[in-house]
Specification:
InterPro entries: N-FG_amidohydro. This protein is an alpha/beta fold. It has seven helices and seven strands, in the order ββααβαββαβαβαα. Strand 5, helix 4 and strand 6 form a beta-alpha-beta unit.
Length: about 260
Amino acid sequence: MSLSYLYQFENYRSPFWAFAIHDGHHIDADLESYLHIAPEDRLREEDPYTAILAELPFNRFVCGTSRFQLDLNRSKDGAIYLTPEQSWGIQVWRSALPQQIKDQLYESYDMLYRKITQQIQNTIDRYGYFVVYDIHSYNALRDGPTAMIDKVNNPQINIGTANNHSKWRELTSSLMDVLRTGKDGQVYDVRENVKFKGGFLSSYLNEQFGDKGCVFSIEFRKDFMNEWTGEVYPQKLQEYKQLLMQTTDTLESYFAYER
């Protein structure tokens, strides 16, 4: 048995990266007989369409495999959801996974982190700096599809920056200012470290390279889709993508005098 993990790196002439590590829904066929969670429940806790949001004039890293097979935003010992406490109370597996399978999954984890590390190092070697948009989405209607969104505690866009070096404070403020206003003048609720502060991937990259760049863990409230049925609202999705697109000039201006 050799378990597959679907992913893709796309390299352009850019110091900037867009990651969509929770976009995927695929589960390796050899794992399906062990799986307990239903596909619709998986989809609800995944981040569908974030690969579309990551279609920016940046380098890209997109994962096609579900976080329920392997979660790259958790530390290695938590990357497989072995207990319901790790996965919103959901039982992911019918029974304990054989050690051989877990070993293969952990090998994939190590391999992917080596590749991510090398890609960021290559970017630093070429440009002297980097920025990662770590793009996610989150559910705000956990009480049911007819519940009202608690807008006080659930901003439209949450920027996780808790792992970033303080030297990136000015860039963070500029980025958030740009995201708050669309080109049509619409104002968006963009806040920092309210729902999420940045996961393990952000922590790891900052520990390795935090003096050379930073990671913005960008969490979109799932206003661009029905979080219970999975139906996408294309116009809203493109609206959010356009918001990200308009931050490109902010990044380029900030780093204009670097190397």
